[in-house]
Design brief:
83 residues, two-stranded antiparallel sheet
Length: 83
């Protein structure tokens, strides 16, 4: 799901806030209570929140560097391994 398709209010959320809301939605859906239309809307919002969280994690991962000591003791950084 492309970032440009996310609702504006979700784009503004921090990772922690988005994850918390997603957890709330999952708990509510797991109860099986509520109207079908509400459940469908909650599921759709949850999908957007999941996408937002994944994008935030990917962005954070791309910023992580590891420090390495090169030849002659020179200190440098390089991208972390994608393990």
């Amino acid at each position: 799901m492309a970032d440009d398709k996310l609702p504006a209010d979700i784009k503004k959320l921090s990772f922690e806030d988005a994850l918390s809301e997603l957890e709330d939605i999952v708990r509510e859906l797991e109860t099986g209570r509520g109207a079908l239309d509400e459940a469908i809307n909650a599921y759709a919002r949850g999908a957007h929140l999941k996408s937002h969280c994944e994008a935030k994690l990917k962005d954070a991962q791309s910023k992580i560097d590891k420090i390495v000591i090169g030849k002659g003791g020179a200190i440098a950084t390089e991208p972390a391994d994608d393990e």
